[in-house]
Amino acid sequence: MNPQPWVGSPTLFVVQMAGHAMRDAGIANGDLLIVDRSKEPAHGDVVVAVLDGELAVKRLVAAGAHLVLHAENPAYPDYVPDGCAPPPIWGVVVSVIHALRDGEPPSPPASPTSPSSPSQSPRWEATA
After folding, report:
1. pLDDT per residue over 52-102, tens digit each?
2. Sign, CA torsion 15/19/21/23
3. Residue 85 and residue 72: Cα distance in Å, rounded?
4. What's the predicted TM-score (pTM) here?
5. Cα distance between residue 114 and residue 62, in whole Å
6. 23-27, 84-88, 96-100, 115-119: least confidently modelled range
7. Buried b vs exposed e over 23-58: b needs ≥16 C-beta within 10 Å?
8. Which among 15, 20, 23, 53 has the fewest CB atoms less than 10 Å away?
9. In this predicted structure, what is the pLDDT of residue 98?
């Protein structure tokens, strides 16, 4: 991934995913989302919208004459705007940086194994 086009762009922002609404789309709690505010949202895009004064991540879906913000987890509700107003879209997600562990860095095992000679450094072993 080449970050050069992103550096210094006034239309790109990083948003950290909070929650599990997009779990089935492969976006996990703690993932970093690269959001482009200059892109025109289209059917099927993952977008960031402002719902009740907070940012929410949903998939934009055309449902007949209306646009719906669809959660990719059946435990979360979709957002259907009232009347003919379009959904309040803040930006389009263009990339996801996946966290390794639910928003936390991985931690090493409790203790290293002992080196077999003083010149060897300790090594970590996985335990079941």
Report:
1. 889 999 999 988 878 899 999 999 999 988 877 777 899 999 999 986 665
2. positive
3. 22
4. 0.71
5. 60
6. 115-119
7. bebebbbbbebbbbeebebeeebbbbbeeeeebbbb
8. 53
9. 85
Residue listed under structure tokens 């803040």: 90
**12-97 domain in CATH 3.40.50.2300?**
no
- Size of the chain in residues: 128
The distance from CA 67 to its chain's CA centroid, rounded to whole angstroms, is 21
Domain boundaries, the chain: 12-97
Instruction: For residue 98, count CB atoms less than 10 angstroms from its CB and return exposed for 0-12, middle for 13-18, buried for 19 or more.
Output: exposed
